[in-house]
């Protein structure tokens, strides 16, 4: 019997529901459980066909253990080698190359020098930087955030260059990025599982946390939903993530990908709501079983994105392979969580 494990931290509702659902539908061929680690020896397997990783971004010991498991044949979701290498600024650059709109974004060096460096370590960096050129590129208001961070940590809304210099002086050794503000008419958060299952959810980031999935007006068009659906699949195809969320801010009918490096996305029922929770549990279970069926001991069972595959094959990033047709508006609409507007009182 192949085992499917889930590695997690403080969250409880998703891991428990995931294990329960896999065991309900897996039959006698597979069994799901919480991962249990009592020792890690080099090149020795953990005895799991598949592991869903929900915590290694915060626990380096787990990240190394998952890489060791992967080299022995475990299908780790998400690929720990790529997840270790990826960051948000690169995501934006890749999005531009594959034709997905993103806000104008500039990379900003850390305010303080990293430990064990001196002025000589920055011989190739101009002092001062072309701040006027940077500010003209992004404009104000703008957001400053870590180039590889998440969870809205160290995110600042800036109104002018004086505000930038004040906030930047507080960021210490964190490499930041400065990003154009997209003043949006609509906002969407989208789950993507297995590079094929997409759940488009209306989202309002300006609401209190527990109300962000409660939106009273429907999406403006099915065409917009189809475009978002297509962009979600394209981004995850090139990045190679099995489990991710993508956020879009819509300005003048154009969906801008705001955040799409979330390989351990929030899936707690208290924050995403029961309907979205049920969807993500079901599709994560189905995909984990699919990966367990395909898993072969002793070989690489990881997902590698098109960026890595085209690079290693010496092929152009975009072009020579036939692109998939965009999803129909009807199909995209089926994957969307829409809250009906309340009836008007007469």
Topology:
Blueprint (H helix, E strand, L loop, with lengths): L1 E6 L5 H13 L4 E5 L15 E4 L6 H12 L3 E3 L2 H6 L2 H10 L7 E4 L22 H8 L3 E5 L9 E3 L2 H8 L7 E5 L5 E8 L3 E6 L19 H18 L3 E9 L2 E6 L9 H4 L1 H21 L11 H8 L15 H6 L1 E2 L9
Parallel strand pairs: 1-2, 1-3, 3-4, 10-13
Antiparallel strand pairs: 5-8, 6-7, 6-8, 9-10, 9-11, 11-12
Helix pairs in contact: 1-9
Task: Describe what you observe in this structure.
- The chain is α/β, with parallel strands linked by helices and 346 residues long.
- The chain contains eleven helices and 13 strands.
- The protein has helices at residues 13-25, 60-71, 80-85, 88-97, 131-138, 161-168, 222-239, 269-272, 274-294, 306-313, 329-334; strands at residues 2-7, 30-34, 50-53, 75-77, 105-108, 142-146, 156-158, 176-180, 186-193, 197-202, 243-251, 254-259, 336-337.
- Strands 12-11-9-10-13 form a five-stranded mixed β-sheet, sandwiched between helices. It has a four-stranded parallel β-sheet with strand order 2-1-3-4, with helices on both faces.
- The radius of gyration is 21 Å and the shape is globular.
